[in-house]
Amino acid sequence: AYKLWILKTISETWNLFHEKFTALWDKHKDGPGEAYLPGVYNNAELQKLAKVRYMEDLFHDMLGFGAAKMIRRIVGVAHVEDFESIKEPSKRAECERKALDIAKTILKERRKFKGISEVISVIENVDV
């Protein structure tokens, strides 16, 4: 139940962020043109392409940051209570290994993911 909840939360968080961010982008698309050259601001098709590309890059950056954070919280000094609370060392090590495998996959393959549902599918396929 917890795994389903956390995966649903991940999906909902990204989707809500994407929705709100792109809505703000659209609301302010006729602004002063500080982020892109006037040629982009004056061309609706280029504006749309810029937004799509920006969101793709942001998504991939988010995946990379999240994966790196997962790795750091497992192998670094700042551990997470979720793993630390597992008393049996072999079980904790197994869980940490699976989390590291997920993080490694996401980090190395992040540019291949087209949406959060693909990331969720990778995580769902790990037996926890």
From TrEMBL:
Task: Answer whether the UniProt record assigns the keyword Transferase to this protein.
Answer: yes
What does the record give under GO molecular function?
Answer: ATP binding; kinase activity
Domain of life, source organism:
Eukaryota
What InterPro entries does the database record attribute to this sequence? Kinase-like_dom_sf (IPR011009)
Q: Which SUPFAM superfamilies match?
A: Protein kinase-like (PK-like)
Going by the UniProt record, its keywords in alphabetical order are: ATP-binding, Kinase, Nucleotide-binding, Transferase
Q: Which PANTHER family match?
A: METHYLTHIORIBOSE KINASE (PTHR34273:SF2)
Protein family (similarity comment): Belongs to the methylthioribose kinase family.
> What is the protein's given name?
Methyltioribose kinase
Originating gene: mtk1
